[in-house]
Specification:
Layout (H helix, E strand, L loop, with lengths): L19 E4 L2 E4 L2 E2 L3 E5 L9 H10 L4 E5 L2 H4 L14 H10 L3 E5 L15 H4 L11 H20 L8 E5 L11 H13 L5 E6 L3 H7 L5 E6 L3 H11 L6 E6 L10 E3 L2 H13 L3 E8 L10 E4 L2 E4 L18 H14 L16 E4 L1 E5 H8 L2 E4 L14 E6 L6 E7 L2 E2 L1 E6 L2 E7 L4 E6 L6 E6 L15 E2 L3 E3 L2 E2 L3 E6 L6 H8 L9 E9 L5 E4 L5 E6 L2 E7 L6 E4 L7 E9 L6 E5 L7 E3 L6
Parallel strand pairs: 4-5, 4-12, 5-6, 6-7, 7-8, 8-9, 9-10, 10-12, 11-36
Antiparallel strand pairs: 1-2, 2-3, 13-14, 15-35, 16-29, 17-28, 18-24, 18-28, 19-23, 19-26, 20-25, 21-22, 21-24, 26-27, 29-34, 30-33, 30-35, 31-32, 31-34
Helix pairs in contact: 9-10, 11-12
């Protein structure tokens, strides 16, 4: 049976016929009843050589669609220098999805959340003085317009109307959780249409009156994001939009993790039962995540609980049906059965789990001492006051702040104002304290002479959700000895995520070994590359490079104690692992044949 497509809203010209349409609450694909059975898979969290494998696994799950965000900051690290090659080749990812038999839903933002650094917004944008994010503020719209000029025509060219796989494009992202500038959301919708999007447009918001009031657009499909109470969400949406089908644009079948917390999981039975409730309500669904992947380099974001920063871990496994390294989990099989029961079709054969390297230990060789190396590897920047990361033109990594204040005799309290996010304090080269946003002062015993005060400040991930989106990094206020401000600062920029292999090698050899922290090397010889999990027993906190790539951040507070090391980062023969340890070296590295993501905690997100 073929049904007529959705008429255009009053006062708007009709767009060319879309692949997905709806009428009388029913979703259609080219005029025939359809369910979107989708899963989120972010190309930017998976090595490009593994895209095809992971997409094949989604098809084997029984899905007919894949959805992905597009992170602006990942593509345009500097203004006017947008890239769409290599790891950023969105078109190649979409074509591989099409070859796997999947439709594609694209979520271009400009804000994406996604537990991604800064919610996908570039630090050079959010750090612009006076910038008003996610509103009709003209400078913000101008920047988004220039980015959309680069991105949206590429997405439009991939639409089904042109023979591509893209059947839907999202308008902004969960805007109703942030604001109520309806003119801005309509502007985003129009910016997509004006640049060639003709397929289905939709918004996605939490299933509450507050969120739907703020984020939806008249005339465009309103979808929901949720982890529970699907029948209630469907009833709410249908009471507001009776002509529209129920689409759960994100079903949270797992959850992400923060450093220092537990590993969040959701039972396969509970996830399958809730998906069944969505489907029984006549709805379509996208699993968030179907395959989580990894926050490689320093792309993990952070959340906040009032004034407390909650940085996200390197793994984005998310307890997804397809695990971080591609293994098929019990949740995969439970959901596969549920989808097969709906469609009556057998999904493609599930591929075998990827091979793994056998476990082993790797001795480490200590290289340059921490402060000596960091001072030597970067040219100093001088200013009367400590400059923020943004003022230094830096997005992520570390900044070493140095000053020579004169301290009176006796115990003196030193306070760092506006510390974002964590600082190791050294006085005359000796570690003294570790500060964070909540604990930002320490005491020093003065002798009436100057001291060498050094603060190694780490950006632990930019906030990706909520009203503190876009906050700066570094020392945003100043440093005081008692009531007196400290002036005359030298800063060393250490943007670890931008370092070339030459930069990393130069840093590791910039000074002699010494102390309990700094750089270390390990050699890994493999006859044939395969996946593995890297553990750093005895190490405290730092960063790991594998050959030419920054793998990510590690931290003994957990929950994760291994880093996924994908096969494509290794080569047959000798491989070099470089560690930048900030506090305390261990004796060796270890390769394991399983992930260790920490003690588990059942977590189901609800909107009460």
């Amino acid at each position: 049976m073929t049904l007529p497509s959705t008429p255009p809203p009053a006062g708007r010209a009709a767009r060319p016929a879309a692949t997905l349409t709806y009428v009388r609450g029913r979703l259609l694909r080219r005029g025939r009843p359809h369910r979107v059975l989708s899963g989120s898979l972010h190309y930017f969290r998976v090595h490009p050589e593994q895209w095809a494998d992971r997409l094949e696994r989604l098809a084997a799950l029984g899905l007919n669609t894949v959805d992905t965000y597009v992170p602006w900051n990942f593509h345009e690290r500097r203004p006017g220098e947008a890239r769409f090659d290599g790891r950023r080749d969105l078109a190649r990812f979409a074509r591989l999805a099409q070859e796997a038999g999947l439709d594609v839903m694209v979520r271009p933002g400009p804000y994406i959340c996604a537990e991604w650094d800064n919610g996908g917004l570039p630090a050079w944008l959010t750090g612009t003085p006076g910038m008003r994010l996610r509103t009709g503020h003209p400078p913000y719209l101008d920047a988004v317009g220039r980015w959309f000029d680069e991105l949206v025509p590429r997405v439009a060219a991939l639409q089904a109307v042109h023979g591509g796989p893209v059947v839907a494009v999202q308008i902004e992202n969960e805007y109703g959780s942030y604001g109520d500038d309806h003119a801005y959301v309509r502007w985003v919708r129009d910016a997509l249409v004006d640049r060639g999007v003709t397929e289905l447009l939709y918004t996605a918001d939490g299933p509450t009156e507050l969120m739907l009031d703020g984020g939806t657009v008249p005339g465009e499909l309103a979808a929901a994001t949720l982890g529970s109470k699907a029948a209630e969400a469907a009833a709410l949406l249908r009471s507001r939009r009776p002509e529209e089908p129920f689409l759960c644009a994100e079903f949270w079948n797992g959850w992400f993790d923060h450093w220092g917390e537990k590993h969040h999981v959701r039972s396969p039975e509970g996830a399958a039962r809730e998906v069944g409730e969505i489907l029984d309500a006549g709805g379509s669904v996208s699993l968030y995540m179907a395959h989580g992947g990894t926050n490689f380099e320093l792309w993990a974001g952070a959340n906040h609980d009032g004034g407390v920063l909650r940085p996200t871990v390197t793994s984005y496994d998310s307890d997804a049906p397809v695990a971080e390294h591609g293994a098929l989990t019990p949740k995969f099989h439970a959901l596969r059965e549920r989808f097969a029961a709906l469609t009556g079709r057998t999904a493609p054969r599930a591929p075998a789990d990827p091979p793994l390297l056998p476990p082993r230990t790797l001795p480490v060789t200590r290289r340059a001492a921490l402060l000596d190396a960091l001072r030597a590897v970067a040219e100093p920047v001088r200013a009367p006051v400590p400059l923020s990361f943004e003022e230094l033109g830096q997005s992520a990594g570390l900044v070493l702040y140095t000053a020579l204040p004169l301290l009176p005799r006796g115990r003196q309290e030193v306070t760092v104002t506006g510390l974002h996010d964590r600082a190791q304090v050294f006085v005359d080269g000796v570690p003294l304290a570790v500060l964070d946003r909540e604990t930002s002062s320490f005491t020093v015993t003065g002798t009436g002479a100057p001291i060498r005060l050094e603060l190694l400040v780490e950006n632990q991930g930019r906030i990706n959700y909520g009203p503190l989106l876009g906050q700066g990094k570094g020392i945003l206020g100043g440093v005081r000895v008692e009531r007196r401000l400290v002036h005359g600062w030298t800063m060393h920029r250490l943007p670890l995520d931008e370092w070339t292999p030459h930069d990393t090698a130069r840093a590791a050899s910039a000074a002699e070994p010494g102390g309990t922290a700094g750089f270390a090397h390990a050699r890994l010889d493999v006859p044939e590359p395969a996946d593995t999990f890297l553990a750093l027993p005895g190490f405290a906190k730092g960063f790991v490079w594998v050959n030419d790539m920054l793998l990510g951040r590690y931290w003994e507070v957990g929950p994760q104690t291994t880093l996924y090391l994908p096969r494509p980062l290794l080569r047959a023969g000798a491989n070099t692992l470089t560690v930048l340890e900030l506090e305390r070296f261990g004796d060796h590295l270890a390769l394991l044949d399983r992930p260790e993501l920490g003690p588990v905690e059942e977590y189901v997100e609800t909107f009460d």
